Amino acid sequence: MQIRVIAVIGAGIMGSGIAQAAAQSGYEVLLEDVSPEAASQGLTVIRNRLEKRVAEAKLERDERDRILSRVRPSSTLEDCGEAGLIIEAVTEMEDTKKEIFRKVDGICTPETIFASNTSSIPISRLAEATRRPDRFVGMHFMNPPYVMKLVEIARGNETSDETVAAIEAACEKMEKVPVVVRDSPGFISNRVLMPMINEAVFCLQEGVASRDGIDTIMKLGANHPMGPLELADFIGLDICLEILDILGAGLGEKFSACTLLRKMVAEGKLGRKSGEGFYDYR
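The structure assignment produced for this chain is given below.
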């Protein structure tokens, strides 16, 4: 089945970024959100990013207009019926994701492929909400999706070879580098990344080094573009905590979140999006 239309469910930071990456590669994109305002805002965010590229002489105005013409906001799941690929990019809550897939399973054709942008929830569990586990796959984009090259393709227990091949082809059309991984909590990226961030928070909590010291050591010592505490702020401390809890439930105590991280999330210090995390963005 040739994928012509991609429906992205969830118009937030990740959803709008995935929609932009798909539209830039020639796909017709439906950007769906339960809120009409959120769907329209997602399109506005894409427009603003493209306008910035035009202002920097990195994109022609005609190409900007062509990209925007391929993105259609919607707040009606029924519109997803025309899509050959559904990419879910909503909050990292298993019940919410399952409910969305349960609904679109009754709307889309049997050929439509379902993909979740989950960063940590096992794909086989999400696929249980549908009648197409063979056409269900993880498609974990990195943030921001319109820049970062990697896409983790998480293969569920029943994901078919044909589905994996179709998703690899879609990634390559979007100029991404697909890497297939076995279904496991956190896959590879977050299974390796989140313990590093968590351990950095433990080091801060225990007074082993200052915030700046920890980040500088990892930037200069491990050649990371961001230190782990700065990166946690960029991801969102609430997201880091959610992922660690999922990893802990699936893989054991070694992924238990640091008390300081839990305390900061409880206080609403979530990183860049709240204006304050390990760093102050106000």
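Interim note for the steering committee: The chain has two domains: 5-182, 190-272. The mean pLDDT is 95.
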